[in-house]
Amino acid sequence: MSKTLYLMRHGQTLFNKRHLIQGWCDSPLTDLGIYQAQIAGNYFKEKGIQFDQAFSSTSERACDTLEIATDGQVPYQRIKGLKEWNFGVFEGESEDLNPALPYKDFFVHYGGESQQELQDRMNQTISELMENASGETILMVSHGGSIANFARAWKHYWQVDITSRMTNCCILKFTYTDHIFYLEDVIHHDFSGWTGDET
Q: Which domains does the chain have, with CATH numbers?
């Protein structure tokens, strides 16, 4: 049986806005981030997408995004394996301190994870969740770096290309068949209706 995975990034946070490194540390959604989660929820409603199960990173920014996008109507489990990359002592520091991409093993020397450790963690977590999911349509809310690295593990099976970074509340739609994840769609939302004073 094929299953469908909607893998979504959280909305904008205070640390996103202030350009601070945010992995295992957390900060709240901004007003714009809340709006972004509402727009993602509208997308699901307009497409008639109903979730049989839902999972979130344990980070508050991901949990809040899921609750807003589903109007609090979908029970969900908080899963540590869906957390963002652990950046060690760089957590909460300026993004200016990030090394050039790809990061590879850089953060291991500072108490964080390697890129391979992150990819393996995400792949194992999501594979187990999808394998054991009782329903056919699954929502998971995670983080930009962790989602991008999970997707990269299955690049050989992409049906579409990822041509831009993982924007806030961006969704990757996968079909999961015979233990393989096929990337079917990359969904970026239109936030031009935002009338707040944040950017």
A: 3-187 (3.40.50.1240)
Q: Which of 10, 91, 113, 143 is catalytic?
A: 10
152 is in an annotated binding site: no
- Tell me whether residue 60 is one of the annotated catalytic residues: no
Spatial neighbors of 116 by CB under 8 A, at least 6 apart, are none
Clarify whether 156 is annotated catalytic: no
φ, ψ of residue 112 to 5 degrees: the values are -105, -165
Q: Compute φ and ψ for 21, nearest 5 degrees.
A: -65, 125
- The answer to whether 9 is a known ligand-binding residue is yes
**What's the distance, Cα to Cα, between the start and end of the chain in Å?**
43
Q: pLDDT tens for residues 148-173?
A: 999 999 999 999 999 989 999 999 99
Is 15 annotated in some ligand binding site? yes
Which of 67, 84, 91, 113 does the annotation list as catalytic?
A: 84
Q: How confident is the model at residue 180 (pLDDT cuts 50, 70, 90)?
A: very high
Spatial distance between the Cα atoms of 161 and 147, rounded to a whole number of angstroms: 14
Specify the pTM. 0.96
Q: What are the angstrom distances between the C-alpha of 149 and each of 37, 47, 66? A: 22, 27, 21
- Determine whether the annotation assigns residue 121 to a binding site: no
| Tens digits of residue pLDDT in 36-84 | 999 999 999 999 999 999 999 999 999 999 999 999 999 999 999 999 9
| Residue of 113, 96, 95 whose CA lies nearest to 104 | 113
